Amino acid sequence: MKTFFDAFLTSIAILLAVPAVLILASWNALPGDSLYSVKTSLEKVAMAVTSRTPLASGLSLKFTDRRFGEANRLLAREGSTLGYTLLVNQATQSKEIVVEKQDVKQAKQLIENIETYQKSIEEKKTALAAQPSAIIPPSVPVSTPTPVATTFVPTNTPTPVAATPIPQPTSAHSVEAVVTNLDQTSSQLEELRQEIIRELPDTESIQHNNQGQHENQGQGRDKDKNKDKND
């Protein structure tokens, strides 16, 4: 009996350990990596388990944030904007969940997150215009020019042999294509933001309140500055 009980506990431990190992192994996987499908499958299981609970909205927002981080890392690693497409897909799912559950609190958080994503995208576009290599990795490593000795052919008139052109680094994806995709992502996120406000009117009043608070804070700072000047 004891042997059977020990074997049963061992089997349970193994069954519980397998998902834990998969979670750890796939945690940093990016789109295109072999373990990425494992990562997203585990997320789907988590969403299925919590779909009928208040936890679903917050969990979906966390996964949206995860897609945003993946998009930034994939762009830096491969110059690919695939991650931003997946970000929009996940943000769309989050929007549908918060609207279905009428979760104003999480809807407000999603709006704020979308604005953060849009700001980051604009910063990347600005950086791309200034220095593309800071955002998009070169597909061909930068090589140090090697002096080429001029070789003379033994003829009556020495003719120098032309030096072989040195290859220049090129981006894995063209800057124009990346900027276009980033623009499209930002527009799609803005559409989602507007849809949330339309479908959950309470979030619009929250947005107005936030804007009013920012304006009041700005006016207060201006008054303080004027007071200091008068003093």
Question: Outline of this structure?
Answer:
With 231 residues, the protein is mostly helical.
Q: What topology does this entry show?
A:
Layout: H1 2-26, H2 36-50, H3 55-78, H4 82-100, H5 104-130, H6 175-199, H7 201-230
Helix pairs in contact: 2-3, 3-4, 3-5, 4-5, 4-6, 5-6, 5-7, 6-7
Structure characterization notes:
The chain has 2 domains: 42 residues, no CATH class; 125 residues, no CATH class. The protein has 7 helices and no strands. The longest helix has 30 residues. With 231 residues, the chain is mostly helical.
- Calculate the mean pLDDT score and round it: 76
Describe the main β-sheet briefly. Answer: none
Based on Cα principal axes, name the global outline: flat
Secondary structure category: mainly alpha
Total strands: the figure is: 0
What is the radius of gyration? 27 Å
Which short descriptors sum up this protein?
231 residues; mainly alpha; flat
